[in-house]
Automatic annotation (TrEMBL):
Protein name: RNA polymerase sigma-70 region 2 domain-containing protein
Any GO molecular function: DNA-binding transcription factor activity
Gene Ontology biological process terms, A to Z: DNA-templated transcription initiation
Species the sequence originates in: Candidatus Infernicultor aquiphilus
InterPro entries with a match to the protein in the record: RNA_pol_sigma_r2
Length: 73
């Protein structure tokens, strides 16, 4: 599962699972039927992208903490 993959690279399994659940709910509400994209394909891409963004924010935070940096906002 996606949660297992991200937990192996440092994130907590429960945090990833919760984030994926929230992304799924948002994707269901945001989905609009477009002929070449199926519902399942849209959901998969939306969750993959959302977890990638979540992981990038985690990495950025891990870099900032030891060096006392404030990157971005």
């Amino acid at each position: 599962s996606r949660a297992k993959r991200y937990s192996r690279i440092g994130l907590e399994y429960e945090d990833i699972f919760q984030q994926a659940s929230l992304l799924f709910i948002l994707a269901v509400y945001d989905y609009k039927e477009r002929p070449p994209t199926t519902f399942a394909g849209y959901i998969k891409k939306r969750i993959d992208w959302g977890l990638w963004v979540y992981y990038r924010k985690y990495l950025k935070q891990q870099i900032e903490i030891p060096y006392g940096l404030k990157i971005g906002n």
